[in-house]
Amino acid sequence: NHTYKKIELVGTSPDSIENAVQNALQMAGESIRNIRWVEVHEIRGQVVDAKVDHWQVGVKLGFTLEASDAPETLEEKYEREKAEKEGTRAASAEV
């Protein structure tokens, strides 16, 4: 079983739509692991002198969440806060 997360980005390129998508993937890959798919949902072009000067491509990237990426559950938050309070009390008692 896997859990996925999707984010939206806009990749750009003066050369082509494909390069704009690749630029978005490359940049995202520098900080996001386990990218599994890309959805192109928007294509724009900046027009200069009646020609597309720069492509802007909106993409949605899907990636697999790892256990360390999962949000903290209420139970985990309660246990963490409880442990932090006990640690604070123990440190205060030593002073």
Task: Name the descriptors.
95 residues, alpha+beta, elongated
Low-confidence stretches: none
Q: Which CATH architecture is right?
A: 2-Layer Sandwich
CATH superfamily: Flavin-binding protein dodecin
CATH class bucket: Alpha Beta
Q: Which whole number gives the mean pLDDT?
A: 90
Q: How many structurally independent domains?
A: 1
What CATH calls the topology is: Dodecin subunit-like
* Number of separate strands: 3
Structural class: alpha+beta
Q: How many helical elements?
A: 2
Question: What's the N-to-C terminus distance?
Answer: 49 Å
Shape category: elongated
Q: What is the topology, as strand order, of the major beta sheet?
A: 1-3-2
Radius of gyration: 22 Å
Listing every helix as H and every strand as E from the N terminus to the C terminus, the arrangement reads: EHEEH
**Which band does the percent of strand residues land in?**
35-45%
The largest sheet, given as strand count, sense and whether it forms a barrel, is: 3 strands, antiparallel
Q: Helical amount among residues, as a percent range?
A: 25-40%
